[in-house]
Structure formats: structure tokens, C-alpha cells
Amino acid sequence: MVLCLAGAMAVGFFGIAHFAANPAQAGAVTANPERVFIELSSLLFNPWIAGILLSAILAAVMSTLSCQLLVCSSALTEDFYKGFLRPSAGQAELVWVGRFAVLGVAVLAIWLASDPDSRVLGLVSYAWAGFGAAFGPVVVLSLFWKRMTRDGALAGMLVGAATVILWKQFFAATGLYEMVPGVALATLAIVVVSRMGKPTPAMEGLYDSVQGELKRSGV
Q1: Which pTM was predicted?
Q2: Residue 212, domain member (yes or no)
Q3: Does 86 map to a domain?
Q4: 139 partner at 20 to 30 Å CA-CA among 18, 47, 64, 189?
Q5: 205 inside domain
Q6: DSSP labels, the chain
């Protein structure tokens, strides 16, 4: 992961240096900074090598897309449809619901991608800010704080997600990534609500079991 992130950052820095020295070639990158890898590959490498490098983008997109489609389909089918709408649904019915869920998510993704003004990295960073703020503090505190309660966990998820949405809408001009205040306020909500309520035995049991596993594995 360190090597991957270092490579991604290096592409950005190399792009800044190259296009600052060659402003005539910077038109596409100036219009859309997310094209820096594509433009650098096309300009600096032999077409055969550039083709291999650019195919990596499609490989990454396809692998991520397949996983996300399956996860969304499983969540909609098992957690929502079977969990709330049709608890007695059979396996054949769930298979068809899962197929329609994949189709629906794919159509939604195509609609989002059809907007020429949309930016992939912007959407991804916004989505991961919501995920990180909603679930990150809950996961971390469930591993290291025995006092966390069920209500505290729910409060943290709601406050984290709401903070990211509100910050993106009203405070984006500050330049602060919305995950930062989201994680901070979610953590605060978990601690405050957990302190106000009684300990949840199930949460304490989960904490003890996780700590036992960590000790047995030598962590």
C-alpha cells in the first residue's frame, strides 16, 4: 500500500513538473486534472508501453466495479429485501432479485458517469469520507474501548454520516476534507452517548472475544 500510494503521489508531482515546463501540452490536464496519468503515459512512453500502462486503468476499474456490484447486490438482496420485505423468500427468488439489483446499480452508475462535469476522484473521495466517518470510529472503538454501547455506536454512525454531508454542502470552501470533522464528531458522539447509557453486554462480549483473538495471534 505504501508503494502504491507513493507511486500515485509521484505521478501527481511529475505531472506538475512536466506540464509546468510544457504548458502547450497541459490543455487536457488543466481541464481535468484526473487525466494526468493518461496524458503522461501518452506523452512520455512508446505507444506500446503506453497501451499497457493505460490498460491498467481498465483493469483497476473492472476489478473494483465487479466487487462493488456484487457487494451492492448482496446488501440489497440479503439485508434489505430478505431482511425487511420478504423474510420467507426462497433461493431462486433471491437469485433473481440479486440479478435485478446488479442491473439497477449498473444503470445508476452509467447515469452518474454520463455527466461530463462529474469527477471520479471527487465522487470516490466523498463516498469514502462518508464510509470512513460513519463506520471508522465505530470499528476502532469497538476494538479498543470496552465501554462503547449499542446506542453510542448508532449515534456515531449517524453523526459521522450527517457531518460529512453537511460539511460538503456548506463548508467545502474551507478546503478541509469532510472526513476529518466527520470522524472527530462521530468519535465524540460515540463517547458521549456511551457514557450517558448503560454498558451493553453484547458489546462487552465482542470486545473480550476480539482482545482474546488478538492476544492468541500475538498482536
Answers
A1: 0.61
A2: yes
A3: no
A4: 64
A5: yes
A6: -HHHHHHHHHHHHHHHHHHHH-GGG-HHHHH-GGGHHHHHHHHHS-HHHHHHHHHHHHHHHHHHHHHHHHHHHHIIIIIIIIIII-TT--HHHHHHHHHHHHHHHHHHHHHHHT-TT--HHHHHHHHHHHHHHHHHHHHHHHHH-TT--HHHHHHHHHHHHHHHHHHHHHSGGG---THHHHHHHHHHHHHHHHHHSPPPHHHHHHHHHHHHHHHHTT-
